[in-house]
Amino acid sequence: MPGRWRLNFKDASKAGNGDDGLDDGRRVLVTIKGNYTRKGEKIHIQWRDGIFWPEGVQTTLQRSAANAAIDEAFLRCLDVATSHGRTVRESGGHNYAPKLFADMPEAQGIKAPAFKLAMARVLSAGTIKIENNGKRPPLQKVDR
Question: What is the pTM of this model?
Answer without folding.
Answer: 0.61
